[in-house]
């Protein structure tokens, strides 16, 4: 990793060139790589915990915390420089993703949400049980990050900021821990079964009591590590669920394991009764095996999103005021900095292109490897690759505030979101566990009255055989599978309401420009009543801040710079602004007619430039439909789904595109509010409506729809409002989404039916004493594995 002189004193990572920061330690100045490490190190030393550095194992860096265990007040996390690495901010509201290794079930999520939700200033708490992460939004004026972390610690959860670049290492540690526990349980099961074979199959008749006791104590010896090590995650999960006031599936598991062990140990020492050491070991082994497979399956769903963040470089070249450059850590970049990017290099931050032109590979975001041409003033994103000449970029966002980090956050939100079916099952599962515990108690009393010697093992069989593990896995495994499947198809899911609405979908509404068409315009006809060059300059400057595809095209008509004041956007109509004291309107013909009621277009016009006294130019524009638009519409209609175009474009242009694509229902000249009213009316009439759009004006309609889809190149408002983001720009992705969520819904229903049917079938058999504890353990585990394997079908494209 390099000599100590080249490494950060705190995090032990290489120090970027020209970074000259240090902390005082035992009378010496120790170099650090950034302000964040400097803040942490100074806090640790100031807290009297400087021996943390003396005894830290640098050879096991990833296993050594960057913050001492004893520093539990978390106050250092309130340092602004440290927060810059992992906290995103929108005004006064901050957001962070936290890693919590001890989250195991829905009861954990409930307890965390209740605890954090009660804190003043906390706006929202989303717990992702599958990946053990918490997303928290809070008002920094009313709450602090340290208060949030301390609140979690009080209920037994130690949380740390989630870093995507460290996720792989944390996942390896989690898998290694599971493998170790699984290995201990597996070895113990083999050894205990060797003795159990003789005891179960009659050899015991040839053994005296001493030999039998010897086999029992050997079994006790091997079963003890299983109970004290392998099974401990179940105990902690059960304790937390009880603390939350909700009994999860680990409660009966823990009762069964501890009850069987205590009873068996008592039998071994008293030489009276039955032992169940083989059942304990096998049960633990099968349960851990199921959870390990579950971890492997869920890991696939986030690898693609997390891997996106790892390609962002750690260093950037920043311009200095004197014209020189310096190499700095990305975490030190601030909005407003100017960075220099060489050909073939990856952008380290979001920004605005300062060079005249640039070509970028944005496949990390869009899935398309073809370079995209950008002009001066266009936005560029972290993770994209500069394809041609050296460029200069003005930084607008870094690290957790970049578009790329936002995609990873959206993936987490989707994995934490639950379809209605899963929410119902979660509610039923806790009552099922309570009913199971009650039935187990009744079973014990009945068998104690009928045959006391069998009461315990029959009760254990009931607890083990009917553990609702498969029921709890039925929905999460399917949800994780469909998210992974769609991710590989270039679709990022934000909300899982898609699963709930896919079965009753009746109508899909499409915007026109940038949705059914590619948003690549050309002027097919124009009529200028003043100088064309001057008109183009005015048009380009009025549209300088537009995110609409037409606006971006019009902005490219001229490079001449004009000062625009009092610029005002009129949604669904156009833009107005004042240049050199003259106020202009640029937009739809009907809007221009408010100024000029008697004006009649001389050509089929989409865009008009005018002042209050005269019309300056009329433009006719044409857009090209997406290649797969017609085939996608045809297939949707074949499936019986009604396809509607809802657009703000003129009637003639909308009908021309609709006819080319085979759409028969067209509603044109629609303002955003009219779109919203039309959609609400359809929903009132019982229609289940999906909306596909990408414009700035589509945000409210996307939010109103039962489910909504947009594209990676869409406006920020559209991306924030939509439930699903298509990364590769394919309209046919709608077909992929439909087929995938329908398959996920089918698999989820199959899992529910199987898990419920199995538990209902095995319960009376176990209560009648017809299922031995070891058989109950195998049956429960195979039931859970069947659910997982069934969900794994979603991973195949």
UniProtKB/TrEMBL annotation:
Residue span(s) of domain HMA: 94-160
Alphabetical list of Pfam families matching this protein: ATPase-cat_bd, E1-E2_ATPase, HMA, Hydrolase
Coiled coil: none
Domain of life (superkingdom): Bacteria
One example GO MF annotation: ATP binding
One cellular component term from this protein's GO annotations in UniProt: plasma membrane
PANTHER family to which the protein is assigned, alphabetical: ATP7, ISOFORM B, CATION-TRANSPORTING P-TYPE ATPASE-RELATED
Similarity-based family: Belongs to the cation transport ATPase (P-type) (TC 3.A.3) family. Type IB subfamily.
Protein name stated in the entry: Copper-translocating P-type ATPase
Lineage of the species this protein comes from: Bacteria, Pseudomonadati, Pseudomonadota, Gammaproteobacteria, Alteromonadales
